[in-house]
Amino acid sequence: MVEFVAYVEAGKYVEAIHDFYAETAFMKENLVEPRVGRENPIGHERAVRARLPQIAQRAGRSGADRRRSRRHQLGVRDDK
User: Fold this and answer.
1) What pLDDT digit, counting tens, does each position of 30-79 carry?
2) CB burial readout 19-31, b (16+ within 10 A) else e
3) Is the pTM above the cut of 0.85?
4) ∠ CA 62-22-50 to the nearest 5 degrees?
5) Tell me, what's the pLDDT at 56?
6) What's the distance, CA 55 to chain centroid?
């Protein structure tokens, strides 16, 4: 996971998809039809990069981290 995040933070989006996604992977965004197979998301990412040559990205906290943080705010102990 650390290596994947490093790819994304370095702007290596296409390489991250190629190196870390299975050939049968698919991506689904909002109401758009899923892009099925690893090559379809790669093609989409290349098209996005062509339109927007510079994309600032920093990996955020995972959903699990946010839930833990929220539970901490509510005083919920993680050991229960």
Assistant:
1) 888 999 999 999 999 899 888 886 765 555 555 555 555 544 444 444 55
2) eebeeebebeeee
3) no
4) 80
5) 59
6) 14
Q: Which two tokens stand for residue 57?
A: 């990205």
The whole-angstrom separation of Cα 36 and Cα 25 is 6
Q: What is the SS3 assignment for 58?
A: coil
- Helical spans, DSSP H, in the chain: 2-9, 13-20, 39-51, 63-73
Name all contacts of 54-61 with Cβ < 8 Å and 24+ positions apart: 55/11, 55/13, 57/8, 57/9, 57/11, 57/13, 58/9, 59/5, 59/8, 59/9
The pLDDT tens digits for 8-35 are: 888 898 999 999 999 998 888 888 899 9
Rounded to an integer, what distance in angstroms lies between the CA atom of residue 1 and that of residue 6?
Answer: 9
